[in-house]
Design a protein that fits this description.
Blueprint: H1 3-31, H2 37-55, H3 65-90, H4 94-101, H5 104-116, H6 122-139, H7 148-171, H8 178-200, H9 209-233, H10 239-245, H11 249-261, H12 267-284, H13 287-295
């Protein structure tokens, strides 16, 4: 299989990851009715680590020091992303949070320049700008204000950009096992959330069976599968491309809300969804070769 095909399949895997995260936004909101933010994330990450480690125990043998170091560093970034995300949602509207967190599509290529000392493809900057317009049409109303929650969500987008770049750097190293990183970082992130839960909250168990069900989905798909798939997929794709793919999260979030909560959309929101899908297609196509063939 050629590396170009591997990149395409990696991008498609990340689309499924984005779909699981889009669906999780609604479930997180429902879980927060019974659980505090840090407690919820502790359940989510520790539960995911235990379930995946139990099933994939053989693949977690012989973990080297470099893999553990990478996992610890990435787990701190994951902790920051999810803490800022969860608390941000408590102090701002879902629409504002969706737009600001999805701004990682712009921060990722910027962070890539500073960390990797390398410019991404020029077309990714144009696509990122178009994605920002699409996200704005989907999520913003006429009353956007920079409240405390908005600041937290913007910081979340910045840290997410750093995480994507650092994850790409680590998993592309020969001495680091990408699958093991995807699992071990969950365990460390769960520890940080558990410590924070006891320090800042009064941890409790979910009171209803439905919340336990929501937690199980978050553990298996939006956390366990998502982070392992992301670590493995980023061996074959670029962090800036991943940032563009993740702009589809509001689309999947809206679809879930539409089907389950029967929410309605403004006409401009549909335009925003179309823009994001077109951006995804444009990212996968080699436009330079297409235009060159037409001119021949």
């Amino acid at each position: 299989m050629k590396i170009k095909n591997k990149a395409f399949f990696a991008d498609m895997i990340l689309v499924f990851v984005t779909m699981s995260w889009g669906m999780s936004n609604m479930l997180i909101d429902l879980c927060l009715e019974e659980l505090e933010p840090m407690t919820l994330n502790a359940f989510r990450f520790i539960g995911a680590f235990i379930l995946i480690a139990a099933v994939m125990f053989k693949k977690l043998k012989n973990v080297n020091r470099e893999t553990v170091k990478a996992s610890v560093i990435l787990s701190v970034l994951i902790f920051a992303v999810y803490a800022l995300n969860t608390y941000g949602l408590r102090y701002t509207s879902v629409s504002n949070a969706g737009f600001l967190i999805a701004m990682s599509v712009l921060f990722t290529p910027i962070m890539s320049i500073f960390i990797k000392k390398k410019l991404p493809e020029r077309k990714l900057f144009y696509i990122a700008a178009a994605c920002t317009v699409g996200i704005g049409l989907m999520t913003l109303d006429s009353h956007l204000r920079m409240a405390f929650g908005d600041v937290l969500c913007l910081l979340c987008a910045m840290v997410c950009g750093i995480y994507l770049v650092m994850n790409e750097i680590f998993v592309k190293r020969d001495e680091i096992n990408a699958f093991q990183v995807g699992v071990i970082e969950l365990g460390f992130a769960g520890i940080w959330f558990l410590i924070s839960a006891f320090a800042l909250e009064t941890p409790t168990l979910p009171a209803s069976g439905k919340v336990w069900g929501y937690l199980l989905f978050l553990m298996l798909f939006s956390t366990g599968f998502a982070f392992i798939a992301q670590s493995v997929a980023q061996q074959y794709t670029d962090a800036s491309r991943v940032g563009v793919i993740y702009t589809l999260e509001p689309v999947f979030s809206r679809i879930a809300a539409r089907l389950v909560l029967h929410e309605t959309l403004l006409p401009r929101a549909y335009v925003g969804e179309v823009i994001l899908v077109v951006c995804m297609i444009a990212m996968e196509l080699d436009l330079g070769k297409i235009f060159k063939r037409k001119n021949e």
